[in-house]
Specification:
6 helices; Thiol Ester Dehydrase, Chain A; 2 domains; about 15% helix; alpha+beta
Length: about 290
């Protein structure tokens, strides 16, 4: 059972993380980039001597985080029933290709959906460059705690979702993930066996290990800049979306985009199964 006041005020120690250019490249490889080593857009994220080499903005999702703290017994959370519902990030300054960041996490709100209906946990993490004190990014997430409703907490407000335009998308970009992509992506920090162990995946109701949701997010965010920003990843300044279905490594992710100035509405679907895997997406380009 959740103790609302205790969980909302839960202290999180600051996390310091140093990463290198190798880590930056490994993250990009975990999105399936490098599959075409002659594609300049791939090399920009995977080859440190490329003139435009830079860290992908979506990498902020895996840096200086608190880990899977919901497993700790004092939270009162049924961690086995927690799903990642939404994610967003905003870049306040370019993410360096290497450096040391300080991450500070807090729980923004916990919404009680009712007995048997679960709870929503809204969290926020700021990332600051240790060397300069510059605020690099704000990362926000929504977790759906399916086993924790009915604790007499607030019933709102619930975040609204971005509505996609009607009609066909203006632009489509396809990226084929790699069969071993989850095994690479997990090296960027998420070692959940669901993404590597076939037996664990079958026990969770999947035919085989699934791709990390944040890897799918990374694919979509890179696809937007590849299609609409001349292949310059650093043009992306904000992205938000909802996770709606898992991806199996090896499947093709089609990102469907509607552009209105610097704002891009988008969703992503798996081509092979015609299933929407990311929805209600909004991105902003510089």
């Amino acid at each position: 059972m959740i103790d609302y006041a205790r969980l909302k005020s839960r202290p999180f120690p600051a996390v310091e993380q140093t990463y290198t250019r190798k880590d930056t490249i490994l993250y990009a490889l975990g999105l399936g980039l490098g599959a075409d080593p002659l594609d300049p857009a791939h090399l920009r994220a995977t080859y440190e001597r490329d003139p435009g080499f830079c860290a992908l903005p979506s990498m902020v999702n895996v840096l200086a985080g608190p880990g899977f703290w919901a497993m700790e017994p004092d939270t009162g959370l049924v961690w086995q029933k927690i799903l990642h519902g939404e994610q967003s990030f905003t870049l306040h300054a370019p993410l360096p290709a290497e450096g040391t960041l300080i991450g500070n996490t807090r729980i923004v709100e916990i919404v009680d959906k009712g007995e048997g209906k679960g709870a929503l946990l809204y969290s926020e993490r700021t990332l600051t460059d240790k060397a300069t004190g510059t605020l690099i990014a704000t990362v926000e997430g929504t977790s759906f705690a399916r086993g924790n409703g009915g604790f007499s907490g607030p019933t709102g407000p619930v975040k609204s979702v971005h509505a996609l335009p009607e009609g066909d998308p203006d632009t489509i970009f396809e990226h084929k993930t790699q069969p071993g992509q989850a095994l690479i992506y997990r090296l960027s920090g998420d070692e959940n066996p669901l993404h590597a162990d076939p037996e664990v995946a079958r026990g969770a109701g999947f035919d085989r290990p699934i791709l990390h949701g944040l890897s799918t997010l990374g694919v979509a965010s890179w696809s937007i800049t590849a299609a609409l920003a001349g292949g310059d990843p650093s043009a992306l300044k904000h992205l938000q979306l909802r996770f709606t279905s898992p991806v199996y490594p090896g499947e093709t992710i089609r990102t469907e985009m509607w552009r209105s100035g610097d704002e891009i509405s988008f969703r992503a679907r798996v081509v092979e199964r015609d299933v929407v895997v990311l929805n209600n997406g909004l991105a902003r380009l510089a």
